[in-house]
Amino acid sequence: MAEYQQVEYTIDKQGNLIERVLNVKGKGCLDLTEEIEKALGVVEKREFLPEYEQAPTVEEAVQNQTVRQAMEPL
Q1: Distance CA 35, CA 12 (A)
Q2: Nearest Cα to Cα of residue 34 among 74, 12, 67, 61
Q3: 23: which DSSP letter?
Q4: Which one, of 16, 28, 73, 17, lies nearest residue 54 by Cα?
Q5: pLDDT tens by residue, the chain, 74 residues
Q6: Distance of CA 51 to CAs 16, 20, 57, Å?
Q7: Residue 32 burial (CB < 10 Å; 0-12/13-18/19+)?
Q8: pTM listed for this prediction
Q9: Counting CB atoms within 10 angstroms of each CB, which of 9, 26, 42, 65 has the fewest?
């Protein structure tokens, strides 16, 4: 069973929004946050966690696709 996917948002003292995706391997983190990033505005900087370099399992890839389809407007 895949781990729970988590997205954390923090606002720093300068008013910058920091987004951190946990328990997502590969480019799934970009798919998971794509829509909210569009709504929030321009992404000024990206720093990837080590999990970004790991290949997702088949189960994780299917879950990411399901989440993406659920977020698409009808």
Answers
A1: 22
A2: 67
A3: S
A4: 28
A5: 556 889 999 999 999 999 999 988 888 889 889 999 999 899 999 999 888 888 776 555 444 454 555 555 55
A6: 24, 12, 12
A7: buried
A8: 0.65
A9: 42
